[in-house]
Recover the amino acids of this structure.
């Protein structure tokens, strides 16, 4: 299964991911309808490795769209991109996030030329941390008060993967 680029018909998927407070509990506050529309407009922009906005691909099976993986270039000297992934609850535990992240890492390193991939998550998001570690991301550092959370901020952790680890995944 190869992820496909996000399309306008994926609005309900995005609403189901970003608008669900239970789903977003691992990431940040749920988004409002107007925030989701702005996010969708951004995600639908044409993407290339040089773009400064997120590229977004949909994970699906015979049941339909179940989640997304994404990537955006970061403004750093080393060719670096941030990666992310989210699944609907009915898509969890089926290996879709793992397959999507594997595909994204391979594309980023082999096709798009990124030297380093980073992922940001909450320190208590053990499922995401475990998935990142399985894909040869390593703990990098903690970012204090980095994630807006209602009226406050929460710490985040950054996981890193350098291109030379890609050969081991092969």
């Amino acid at each position: 299964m190869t992820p496909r680029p996000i399309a306008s018909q994926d609005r309900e998927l995005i609403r189901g991911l970003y608008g669900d407070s239970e789903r977003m509990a691992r990431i940040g506050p749920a988004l409002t309808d107007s925030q989701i529309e702005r996010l969708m407009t951004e995600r639908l922009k044409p993407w290339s490795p040089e773009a400064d906005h997120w590229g977004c691909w949909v994970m699906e099976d015979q049941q339909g769209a179940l989640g997304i993986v994404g990537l955006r270039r970061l403004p750093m000297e080393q060719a670096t991109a941030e990666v992310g992934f989210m699944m609907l609850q009915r898509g969890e535990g089926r290996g879709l996030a793992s397959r999507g992240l594997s595909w994204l890492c391979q594309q980023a390193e082999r096709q798009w030329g990124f030297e380093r991939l980073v992922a940001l998550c909450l320190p208590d998001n053990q499922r995401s941390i475990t998935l990142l570690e399985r894909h040869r991301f390593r703990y990098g550092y903690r970012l204090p008060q980095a994630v807006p959370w209602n009226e406050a901020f929460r710490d985040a952790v950054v996981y890193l993967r350098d291109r030379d680890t890609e050969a081991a995944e092969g």
